[in-house]
Amino acid sequence: MRAVIAEDSVLLRVGLVKVLEMAGFEVVAEVDDAEALLTAVEEHRPGIVVSDVRMPPGFTDEGVRAALVVRAQWPDTAVLLLSQYVEERYAADLLTGDTRGVGYLLKQRVADVEEFVDVLRRVAAGGTALDPQVVSQLLLRRHSDPLDRLTPREREVLELMAGGRSNAGIAERLVVSESAVAKHINNILAKLDLPKAEGDHRRVLAVLRFLGVGS
């Protein structure tokens, strides 16, 4: 799969190129600002974009705004944003629309190459991945809503769901059976008042409610 990298730090950009190539991605462009990122995506139509949140010239939210343009104009291109710090609103902005092929990680996660590559492949395949610190901070902001009905274990399962884990991945992480995970998820959906409805993906709706995105 072809990839475009947008990162103004030369050292990190070189490292990302090596990690992606090692993971089997073809890096077709590496740029250092948002405008060049959009140009590269238009030219190469990559399968995934890995971009810094803050880039020249303003070092504010240029990467996020570019990512939103990519999602709108080239919806088949997955986007993985990297941030130096936890910035919840950027994660929320990215998740407001289609949540397929979206990721948001702290840059420190790149050091764990195996885990980072797992996230890359998950997002590139259409999954969603959020940094655990982002998920934890969003959870701490929650008060007096259906999420308070969840048990500690159900919250843990929902947090892993928000991180993009499958039932098998959750079972492996928590060292329980997949059937136990399925029961927890059914309980979560019930407690969050998410009845079965045609056209709705209840698992996605549960994650969005957990993150405070959408209605």
TrEMBL record:
Residue ranges annotated for the HTH luxR-type domain, each copy included: 143-214
UniProt xrefs under PROSITE patterns: HTH_LUXR_2, RESPONSE_REGULATORY
SMART domains, alphabetized: HTH_LUXR (SM00421), REC (SM00448)
Domain Response regulatory: 2-122
Statement: the UniProt record of this protein carries the keyword Transferase: no
The keyword Transcription is assigned to this record: yes
SUPFAM superfamilies in UniProt: C-terminal effector domain of the bipartite response regulators, CheY-like
Modified residues (4-aspartylphosphate): 52
Assigned keywords, A-Z: DNA-binding, Phosphoprotein, Transcription, Transcription regulation
Domain of life assignment: Bacteria
Protein name: Response regulator transcription factor
UniProt source species: Streptomyces luteireticuli
